Amino acid sequence: MFTEEELQKVQEIRSHYPTNLAAVMGVLHMYQDKAGIVDEKGVAYVAKLIDVPEEHVLGVATFYEMYHQHPTGKYKLQVCTNVSCMLCNSDMVLKTIKDRIGIGIGEMTDDGLFSVHEVECLGSCGTAPVLSLNKQYHENLTPEKINELIDTMKAKG
Question: What is the pTM of this model?
């Protein structure tokens, strides 16, 4: 599945760690960026590619929120609902998203443009509430900021 250039990147990732087990997350990111999800085929491919047990790769892929085992929207809205964000109104973030595009946690819009995901922590407690849109953080959210963000993504298509 990976090109020769991507395989070289895998080797570079592996070179940073004392064991192949430690390279799983980086290679899973590469796979998901290319395939869109980390499905059974992806778990098997990554395991074989870096010579680690499939069970280990599956454990990593299912433990961390950043890996998706099901199709997601073009724009992945990951909303932090950990304590700091919850105390700073993460419920407002979810409500605003639901009001604006009609979907909640674990759902995707019919056009495949947006999906909403709950994450345990984005590590941005000091700027809560926060969400990640395709790995880009949006912090100190208000309904206005959220609606503007969604409208911008809709315009981009």
Answer: 0.74
